[in-house]
Amino acid sequence: MNTAELLFAGVRWWLTIGAGVAAVFLTIGIDRIDEDARGAYVFRPLLLPGVMLIWPLVLWRWLRIETGAGDEQARYVPPRATHKTVAVLMAAGILAAVVLGLINRPQWPADFVPQQISGPGE
Amino acid sequence: MDKKPFFVGYLPIPEGLRAFLISLTVSLVVFMAFVGITIGATQDDPGNGAFRFDWRQQTVTGVIEFVPYPILRVTEGNERIPAGHTLMLTGQGKSTIRTRVQPMAGDLVALTGVILKRGELDMMQVAGGNRGLKKVDGPAPDLPAPEPLGRWKLAGEICDGKCLAGAMRPGRGLAHKACANLCLIGDIPPVFVSSQPVEGSEFLMVAGPDGTRLPDRAYDLVGAFVQLEGDLERRGDLLILRMDGDTMELMQ
Question: CB-CB: which of B39, B216, B225 is closest to A109?
Answer without folding.
Answer: B225
